[in-house]
Amino acid sequence: MTEFRPIKLPEDFIPIGEMIFEAFQYPENPHWSVQIDEKEEISHAIRSLRRLWPLMRLMRIVSPSLRDIFRGYVAVDQGRIVGLTLIQRRGTTDTWIVGTVGVLPEYRRRGLARAGLERAIELMRTHAATRTWLGVINGNTPAQRLYESLGFEVYDGTVDHTLTDPVAPTVPPLPPGYTVSKLKRGDWKTRYALEDRIAPEETRRYEPIEKGRFRTPMMMRLLVPIMSLVQRQKEEDFVVRSGGHAVARFGYSASMRGKGVHSIRVRLDPDHPALARHLVARLVSRVVSLSPGLRIELGVPRWMPSVADAAEALGFTRRVEYLKMGRPL
What is the pTM of this model? Predict the structure, then answer.
């Protein structure tokens, strides 16, 4: 008989990683599936978290916000994890994210995803959550119907773009009137001010622009560089300013192991579309120079079409669209 229990860490790290790859395979839509290089990246990240757990355990005692990074439930059958619902608080706000809802193929259509998510919703409520959101593949009709039946509604969307076998492109010059500088990890005010100016009104019900979403607790600021070192990952972020205001921020996470996947990110004011080609090309050139040959991933909100156009002009293809669905608690 399948039973539910809270996630136990660090014991569950490895079995959760093993079931995620199997749970997120879609033979009828292979581009939806977790790819081999993504599996390697996930496995490496989980092993790194397992190694760092003694330090994280200590930090969780000192910093209450770190206790809400890994919460949720697993469904267990004869000692095997067959389902997972993973949730986390967004920063220090009362918004929570449902990061993962997955069930092994042979255990589907038994109500496990619903049961796990219902338990997770109740857990979020006990921690004073007022809203939650999740992502679902556009086209995964059974999952979307499940979430709708539990009160979730679509409010936004993101398209994942991928670039295989990338080469360093020619980076067009930065348009006149703009300056670029490095964005420090602790500079939450710049991130907050930019997002407050550019986020569409329809997204704010479930992703309000709150300081606690951007202000990283001290313990987390200490932990992130250590995790990057252990994972052999290099990260940098930059800000673009014009007329004294931040109009974009962009950055990358590059695997320095010769394995896994690079990821790049761009948040661009839609009133400054001319920047998009420079930012995307600059990021691609940077990660290729650091560790060539690895696939590059870029997620683009549907309200940033200039970034999507710039990525596709450089050879990125649209892999999958995720619908964001939220509900009040």
Answer: 0.94
